[in-house]
Amino acid sequence: MINRLCIIGVGLIGGSLARALRGAQACAHITGCGRSEENLQRACELGVIDDYSTDIAEAVKGADMIVLSVPLRAMPAIFRIIDVHIDAQAIITDVGSAKSTVVQAARDNLHNNIARFVPGHPIAGTEQSGVEASFAELFNERRVILTPLPENKTEAVERVKKMWEAAGALVQLMPVDHHDEVLAATSHLPHILAFGLVDTLSKMSDRDEIFQYAAGGFRDFSRIASSDPLMWRDICIENSAAIIQIMDNFLQDLEALKQAIATADLDTVEAIFRRAKEARDRYTEQLAPSSK
Amino acid sequence: MINRLCIIGVGLIGGSLARALRGAQACAHITGCGRSEENLQRACELGVIDDYSTDIAEAVKGADMIVLSVPLRAMPAIFRIIDVHIDAQAIITDVGSAKSTVVQAARDNLHNNIARFVPGHPIAGTEQSGVEASFAELFNERRVILTPLPENKTEAVERVKKMWEAAGALVQLMPVDHHDEVLAATSHLPHILAFGLVDTLSKMSDRDEIFQYAAGGFRDFSRIASSDPLMWRDICIENSAAIIQIMDNFLQDLEALKQAIATADLDTVEAIFRRAKEARDRYTEQLAPSSK
User: Fold this and answer.
1) Is A292 near chain B, with CB under 8 Å?
2) How far apart are CA A218 and CA A215, in angstroms?
């Protein structure tokens, strides 16, 4: 049970976590914090948070759990302020999609409080942004990866784990580097390809006509290109090492596939498509029928 | 009104067209044709077709409308047989996803009957295959592109147009080359990227774990990688000229995006993502709310 939860950044993820914990009665009081007073007022009206402050030092006062749910590049400055205003019992966690740079930012700014920071990442989201898009079920049966630091006490990790489980999530632990590699492959690269494809098409001279003839496959494929450009810019920059690695693999594979198409190499093209379909079909078998 | 419709290839597309035309009472009799007797029997049991033959010469006898709904590479041999068994009043059309090579195959094999062939392509489908997956509503409000030949009489084009409109589709005419360019961009490239991404991931050493952490974005993005590998192999080979062109554009853009990420060029990455989101959001505004 959390006594006072402070959510810094009350958007899709922060707002959904607040809603989920309130629904589960896992939290006595929720304070919101952010730069936009208008957004925080809206979050109050929606019942997502109990009160708010645009001042971080003020917002974290008395909190026993602090969740950073802000763009990756906003985290260092927030850690710096938290470091000098945090309560003795408080635990800090975050929801950043890349973990190496967040951990580095925490080490650079949290000083004596580094042991209280348990890095986290819920593998959930939609292409929508903002508190209006938040909903209590977002983390239901979804995975949350925690990448604990050597300095973390077991109890600190347990408290963050219990919070996410109360929100309905399945929590797993993983080393920081491994998290960043796995997410580069399964999330960051697909977003880059979707943004990239739509951008390539939007530069074509007959682009209006092109989009007019796009069908269901394109609609599903490109959905994530409607995601927040700033958030995804930050993710790409903050996880660039792992992303460049997987992009290199993909570019090499795509070049080989292009050569196979150009030379009418039926066997190679078929082998690639067949391997992909088998992997994709295996993957969907693991999903709930409703989410295939 | 079609008197005798002959559908060669009773799968997702051919089966759905039969169901739609029957539902609209636009067709008195439907004969199915294909290589698998088991599949044709199943189509009869499902009420999709009235009767069938595995012999093309037999199946097209007496038909006033013949629809080729087979893989692209199967078309030349079928045109050759149709050419000598077609009825005097019959019109031929197809549903191939690439049109230049189909038109060439028709010119090579239909001889004196080329004027009766009106090339077509319904922009509809799912990642499923086979007559079991067919449904009457597949073409509802979907676009069908016809790419008429100079030899076609207006009446022949009209008859094919009316057939698709009876099935619920919106029919538009377009030159062959332009069709192939537009489809390479909006359909063929997205499929290649989805197949390619899943294949790249499936070759990683920790692939089982990788897929385990894939979330909703990946699920939507990769759905089309569950499509029929043989059908898509054929599409890539048959539309290779237009596909190689758009792949080159995309590879160049993706390489530039990679460089921007590698050099932490925030402005360039943001500009690409923002342009893509704007184009994607404009595109979804044109869609019905239910299909966004």
Assistant:
1) yes
2) 6
DSSP for residue A288:
-
B274 touches chain A (CB under 8 A): yes
Residue B143: C-alpha distances to residues A208, A214, B117, B120, B136 (Å): 15, 9, 20, 11, 15
- Contact check, Cβ <8 Å, A226/B280: yes
Residue partners of B108: CB distance under 8 A and separation at least 6:
B76, B79
CATH of domain A178-291: 1.10.3660.10
Q: Which residues of A touch B199 (CB under 8 A)?
A: 253, 272-273, 275-276, 279
**A221·B218 Cβ contact <8 A:** no
Measuring CA to CA, which residue among A92, A29, A81, A91 is closest to residue A58?
Answer: A81
Query: Residue B120: enclosing H or E segment and its boundaries?
Result: strand B120-122
ipTM exceeds 0.95: no
Do the Cβ atoms of B253 and A209 come within 8 Å?
no
Q: Whole-model pTM?
A: 0.86
CATH 3.40.50.720 applies to domain A2-174: yes
Start and end residues for every CATH 1.10.3660.10 domain found in chain B: 178-291
How many beta-carbon pairs below 8 A join chains A and B? 296
Question: Tens digit of pLDDT per residue, chain A (292 long)?
Answer: 899 999 999 999 999 999 999 999 999 999 999 999 999 999 999 999 999 999 999 999 999 999 999 999 999 999 999 999 999 899 999 999 999 999 999 999 998 899 999 999 999 888 788 899 999 999 999 999 999 999 999 999 999 999 999 999 999 999 999 999 999 999 999 999 999 999 999 998 887 888 888 877 788 888 899 999 998 999 999 999 999 999 999 999 999 999 999 999 999 999 999 999 999 998 888 765 444 4
